[in-house]
Automatic annotation (TrEMBL):
Belongs to the CoA-transferase III family. Pfam families: CoA_transf_3 (PF02515). The keyword Transferase applies. Keywords: Transferase. One of its GO terms (molecular function) is transferase activity. The keyword Transferase applies. This is CoA transferase. It comes from Streptomyces luteolifulvus.
């Protein structure tokens, strides 16, 4: 396979992806989607576990095809002297390193910030861990699930009389990946002014807390602890999922007062608009039973298509509850090109999520899907200047 050169707004930015599962690698993917040259560095005998996560086809992990896209893959054992030396040579050519080893691991291999910044003072080192680089939990094993539990997310998710609920996907990791990509770009912007790189310390427990909203502020000022409310909201109503006559589900939101009024007129209960408590979202939320009964009864008598058409005509907010089968054929996603097809030499055409956002002048692109383990080792290291004899020596040492 010939890997096309990077194009896009980040062309010229070189990223070394040392991370595994999932926040760090996804941050590197997001950078690669917009033109950064990403070199994925994996252990020779222990590749990124995402290669084996979830379903596979013909022995090839499908998750990796998404997470590894736009990355060249090489192998390198950083604990070996030759691996350490080679990484320092790579670091001298890089703009960014993303790693998620437990704090102290790189330092154990004499590859900490002191050594890396000496090799390249302009380097940005993004360190993505469960709990950050310091504090009482810093050296604990950290995964996104723990962040979803610790942050307050699980505590407010689920029905009031049911256990706290964890998401069935990597929510905290994905949020941390977005935050890490943003942090890297912020650090690169600072480097453009100062000429010096720096360390990004990203704790997975923190970005998810930010997106949960003003819970700390509410608690600090009012002693308020947000409870589990299922699909309902404390801030507006009606807001819930409702079953249609043909056995499907739709979601209704009324964050705006005008939309709440339109919904009640649509479902034939305009008298509720005149109730004193209908004037604010919080007061409506305290009367969710009444509003849910009105909306739910109306929706239960109609098919999903009838409900969606009526809500659209009334300019009220509704969406179908879709699974991935629906997503793949949804006309809005199709119009946006949200799911695109990538040709892959191992598996043929693959449909996957497109790049995250559209830029009018310098768009991102998926140049290839995740590559086999170590597929580009010789090419990348030869470009670095290593001779065939040096490559042989590294393989003899077990560093490749």
């Amino acid at each position: 396979m010939t890997t096309a050169p990077p194009t896009g707004p980040l062309t010229g930015v070189r990223v070394l992806d040392l991370a595994t599962l999932f926040a760090g690698p996804l941050a590197a993917t997001l950078l690669g989607d917009y033109g950064a040259e990403v070199v994925k560095i994996e252990h020779p005998a222990k590749p990124d576990p995402s290669r084996g996560h979830g379903p596979s086809k013909d022995g090839v992990g499908l998750w990796w095809k998404l997470l590894g896209r736009n990355k060249r893959t090489i192998t390198l054992d950083l604990s070996k002297p030759g691996g350490r030396t080679t990484l320092l040579r790579l670091a001298a050519t890089a703009d960014v390193i993303i790693e998620n080893f437990r704090p102290g691991t790189l330092e154990k291999w004499d590859l900490g910030w002191e050594e890396l910044s000496a090799a390249n003072p302009r380097l940005v080192l993004a360190r993505v861990t469960g709990f950050g680089q310091f504090g009482p939990y810093a050296r604990r094993p950290g995964f996104g699930t723990l962040a979803e539990a610790m942050s307050g997310f699980a505590a407010i998710t689920g029905e009031p009389d049911a256990p706290p609920t964890l998401p069935p996907f990597g929510l905290a990791d994905s949020i941390a990946a977005l935050a890490t990509a943003y942090a890297v770009m912020t650090a690169l912007a600072a480097r453009d002014r100062t000429g010096e790189g720096q360390v990004v310390d990203m704790a997975i427990i923190e970005p998810i807390l930010m997106v949960l909203g003003p819970q700390p502020l509410w608690y600090d000022q009012l002693g308020h602890v947000q409870p589990r409310t299922g699909n309902r909201s404390q801030n507006n109503a009606p807001r819930n999922t409702y079953r249609t006559a043909d056995g499907t589900w739709v979601a209704v939101s009324t964050s705006a007062q005008s939309v709440a009024e339109r919904v009640m007129r649509l479902v034939g209960r305009p008298e509720l608009i005149d109730e004193p408590w209908f004037a604010t979202g919080a007061d409506r939320a305290r009367h969710s039973d009444v509003l849910d009964e009105a909306v739910g009864a109306w929706i239960a008598e109609r098919t999903r298509e009838e409900v969606l058409a009526a809500f659209e005509k009334a300019e009220a907010a509704v969406a179908p509850i879709q699974d991935v089968r629906d997503v793949m054929t949804d006309p809005q996603y199709q119009a946006l090109g949200t799911v695109t097809t990538v040709d892959d030499p191992e598996l043929g055409p693959l449909r996957m999520q497109n790049v995250l956002f559209r830029l009018s002048a310098t768009p991102g692109a998926i140049r290839w899907a995740g590559r086999p383990h170590g597929a580009d080792t010789d090419t990348v290291l030869t470009e670095l200047g290593l001779t065939p004899a040096e490559l042989t020596a590294l393989r003899t040492e077990g560093a490749l």
